Amino acid sequence: MDYFKTFWAALCLAFSSVCFSAEIAIIIDDIGNSESDQQALNLPPEVALSLLPFTPHAQQIGHHALQQQRDLLLHVPMEAHYKNHYLGPGALTAQMDEQALKQQLQQAIVSLPFIQGMNNHMGSKLTSMAEPMRWTMETLAQHELFFVDSRTTKHTVAEAKANAVGVPVLRRHVFLDNIRSSAAIAKQFEFALKLARSGRSVVIIGHPYPETLDYLEQRLSQPLAAVNLVPITSLVPMSEGALARQKALKSGALTQ
């Protein structure tokens, strides 16, 4: 019996499309503050970029990424429990009422009209708060954008509020570079591949650190052994309106 289990597991690994779809999607966060963030454009076009609003290089990098048919997200700063001096412009905070939060988020969305979805930058405090997350998801629903919960806290209610409002939602499974060393990044990436081979679609988040981008350039040029690298949008169930918007983005109709 053990022999047949081993044989079947090996067969599934070799012909994964028959047994299950082993997929990873990668998002590179924090794009826009530095000109060096452009190195992320050297990664395969399946790798999404998440742009910080109102930053010096977000527009330029976003337009280049769009020309590559690359998925783009809005990386909205949200209040955390600490280190809020790292939030940057366009942040959503716990002190905002509904009107202020929705207006701030609306301005960020309009500033980067080529985005297809959004994920949170920081946000350990705000994503655990029910009302601000409901307001956030209502705004995303108006623009037919999806949400990826970066899960910076185990107490997040973002995914639940997205589901309640009807916003397509995914969650982050692996942070690639909490430790900025090639060895640690490689370990996290191989862990993500192992999760994917167990039969799930895995969302990975990294950052535009030289260590991360150098590692991914090298690793993604090699076979991933029965795992497919896919665009983040391929994992999102989209409405007809969202699909039409994505088609318009790809054709260049919404780049201005």
From TrEMBL:
Gene Ontology BP, a term: carbohydrate metabolic process
CDD domains, A to Z: CE4_DAC2 (cd10936)
Keywords: Signal
Pfam families: Polysacc_deac_2
InterPro entries, sorted: Divergent_DAC, Glyco_hydro/deAcase_b/a-brl
Protein's recorded name: Divergent polysaccharide deacetylase family protein
Matching Gene3D superfamilies: Glycoside hydrolase/deacetylase
Signal peptide segment: 1-21
Keyword Signal: yes
Keyword Signal belongs to the record: yes
